[in-house]
Structures are given as structure tokens and as C-alpha cells.
Amino acid sequence: MRTENACSRHASMDDLAGAFAACRDAVFAHWRKHVSVEGPTFDKLGKPRLIEALETLYEDMTRALSSCASASVATSGTDAGSIVGPEDVIMSQYGAHDLVHEMQIFRKAVFSVAEANGLGLTRCGAELIGHCIESATRELMIAYSALNKEASGAFVKTLSDDLRNPLHVAHTSAQLLELKSSDPHVIRLAKRIREKLCQADAMILAAERSLAEG
């Protein structure tokens, strides 16, 4: 009897997973439509940022439904590189709140399409899908933060190099002027210029270190 119930339950979960898989195109069509309406920032980037990650997540959720696996298994395929590139983080207005918003729209799309198609999600199935999306959101937020820190660090390093190189040239020129001039006024001026350039260089280095440590 227990074996028959287990087989029946397994077949039921397989049927649910098959029906869920069949809803995939409708879910993403619903998601894209609402992302374009509710997220004007996404249009500036050319496409929703999470499309690759969510496609992988949907496939993993389908497999999880068929085996009633845990949320950690279903979110194992989410990829930090699928969120945004470092250039996007710096050069666009896409932020962490946009990432969360896209995930919220995806959640609504999944359950709206499931209801519209009479999928008949069990409580266990609905909770599994919800937990999967929540886990994926946390993982993507962690990945986004890491990418944001990496991109910001690279941007500041480039800016630092661009600023410090001319400062070094100016410092060397002031130093030569101070050594070659016999005019006390010129010497004092050159020394003051060097001091100010050193202060500016120290401020740039401090800002770079602060970002690296933060």
C-alpha cells in the first residue's frame, strides 16, 4: 500500500512538473511584458538583466517539482555572471532594487500563468516554487553586490591612475623648477605646489583604499 501511494505521488509530481514545463514560454512572455511596463530602467539596458539566470532557474524548478527536491537544489544553477556585467553596474542606472523588482515580477508571472492554465499547484509545490525564487533572489543579490564592488573598484583604480599620472608629472616639474631656480619666491611657490600635489595624491590613494576595504 505504501509503495502504491509513493508511486501515485511520484506520477502526480511528474505530471505537475510536465505541466509546469509546458507553461515556460507563457511565463516568460508574461514576465517580459510586465518588465517592460513596470521597469523603464530595463529598457535602457536593452533587455531584462536576469533572463539567462531565470531560464536556468525555471529548468531547475521543473526538475525540483518532479522530485520534490529542496530549494537549494533548485537554485544551484543560478549564475553571478548572468546578472549584469561590470560595465552595466557602473554605466547604467540598474541597481539592486531593479534586480529584486525583476524577481518579484517573475514570481507573479509564475503563479499567474499557473493559475490561468489550471495547473493546480499543491501547497507543497507552491511553497517549493516560492522558496526557490526567494533563494535565487538572495544568491543573485550576493552576486550583484560582489560584481558591483568589483566594477566600482576597477572604475576607481582606472580613475586613480588617470589622475595620479599627471599629478606625478606636475610634481616632477615643480621639483625641477625648485632645484634650478635661484629666485626665493619661485622656490617657495614650487615647494607649495609640490605639497598640494602630494596632498591630492594622498587623497586619491585614501579613496581607493577605502573602497577596497569597504
What does this entry look like structurally?
- This protein is mainly α and 214 residues long.
- It has two domains: 2-150, no CATH class; 156-213.
- The protein has nine helices and no strands.
- The protein has helices at residues 2-22, 24-38, 40-44, 51-67, 71-74, 86-91, 96-116, 123-180, 184-213.
- The radius of gyration is 28 Å and the shape is rod-shaped.
- The N and C termini lie far apart (60 Å).
- 22% of the residues are buried.
Task: Please tag this protein with its features.
disordered N terminus, 0% strand, mainly alpha, 214 residues
N-to-C order of helices and strands: HHHHHHHHH
Share in helix = over 70%
**Total number of beta strands:** 0
Describe the global form.
rod-shaped
* Total discrete domains: 2
Distance between the termini: 60 Å
Strand percent estimate: under 5%
Please compute the radius of gyration using only Cα atoms: 28 Å
Short description:
83% of the residues lie in helices and 0% in strands.
What is the strand and helix layout of this fold?
Elements (H helix, E strand, L loop, with lengths): L1 H21 L1 H15 L1 H5 L6 H17 L3 H4 L11 H6 L4 H21 L6 H58 L3 H30 L1
Helix pairs in contact: 1-4, 2-7, 4-8, 7-8, 8-9
